[in-house]
Design a protein that fits this description.
By secondary structure, this protein is α/β, with parallel strands linked by helices. It has a single domain, classed as 2-Layer Sandwich (Nucleotidyltransferase, domain 5), CATH 3.30.420. It is built from ten helices and five strands; from the N terminus they run H-E-E-H-H-E-H-H-E-E-H-H-H-H-H. Strands 3-2-1-4-5 form a five-stranded mixed β-sheet. Strand 1 and strand 2 form a beta hairpin. Helix 3 crosses helix 7 and helix 4 packs across helix 5. The chain starts with 13 loop residues before the first helix and ends with a helix.
Length: 217
Amino acid sequence: MPEKDAMTKYPSLKLEFELWSRGFQRVGGVDEAGRGALAGPVAAAVAILPPDPHIGEVLRGVRDSKQMTPLQREAWAEKLPALLLDFGVGFASPEEIDVLGILPATRLAARRALAALSAPPDHLLLDYIKLPTVDIPQHSLPKGDRRVLSIAAASVLAKTRRDALMRAWETQYPGYGFARHKGYGTAAHRDALQRLGPTPLHRRSFAPLRFIEEGTA
């Protein structure tokens, strides 16, 4: 499969069409959200598009969640479940991130997303990461969420499901601004950490948290 497709404004179905033509009907796009945050879980999603030549038009507007506005993401998150052949979302907790490390925890969230599907995919398309313990043919490519429609759809699902959790925790942990920054290391978040200290949602293995607990921040 080509690794250097030209970047376009919207992701394409090129790889999905190639796989569908080879008999792979359940092609799962995989992406994660929250990998670089200081607090909250890491999320992963799998999105399986119906092998329909018109699905690209149906999903026109879906792209890398980072390129979408919050309103666009939320609107598509409402629509996608009815338009996809199947999807699953999984999480790995802050404690699991601290014990395993962020890459293994991201893979764990992806495996949980796969387990949430009604049936396994027969091929995976992933953004950067690989799942070496998953016995499914897979292809990992850089900037997959910008290039491949199924991965872009997964990025929207992972991002919006994780954002919803972070908003819900705003009332349980007031003063940190989780509803605004979703756990990422903004200046306001770091200031709250200095004033209030870490919560159970914080990833204590990440450098800013280690420095605060060691008194060197």
